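dumping this here before i forget
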Amino acid sequence: MPSRTVHAVCSHDCPDSCGVLVTIDETGQATKLRGDPNHPVTRGFLCGKVAKYLDRVYSPDRLLYPMRRRAGVPKTSLPHGQESEAFERISWDEALSTVATRLAAIASEHGPESILPYSYAGTIGILNYGSMDRRFFHRLGASQLDRTICSETGGQALISVYGRKLGTDTEAFSQAKLIIAWAATSTATTSISGPSSKKRGAMAQSSSSSTPTPPAPLAPRTGTSPSIPAPTPRSRLA
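structure:
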């Protein structure tokens, strides 16, 4: 099969769903990854995490098979290069059987709700995030988790400052005259406010001294943020 370019979408859970162009060689291996210039929001931009994605996909240190901790090995950090000595490779059938047996034993002794599927989103697609795992744990009868592990603190901050949770449509960033990135490096790690702002030439100000300077017209001005009155203390979280 000749070399080709495949249209894809970043699997991170950012709201802009960056378009990605992946070059595939004759052997079926991805050799190049770049942003899709036709994406309406990100317009060819990729954050630093995704730009190096192929380095992780084809890394010799990538975990590809089930591993089980060896008996008698202490659960402490081992010297660099000796980490694999604490684990041994097992088959997929053995791994699935081990997990299933353990879950069944816990549910039998303590009830299925003693099992909590502690997870959120991360680098996964919609099928893994909100479909197959829900079916499995619901069938098992496990405790249900409010999937807000990563966002609940931010949500409570929005409520305490603004009174409700609200956000900005990614297509509206191009209409902004000023963007304040509060303790965030959006021009380096995300693309929500970067390329979308170039159309209007918005200025971006960040409260983080480590924010790198992006290409013009975005020009982050590092400094302290304006004084904002502290919210009224509450007896409990809303």
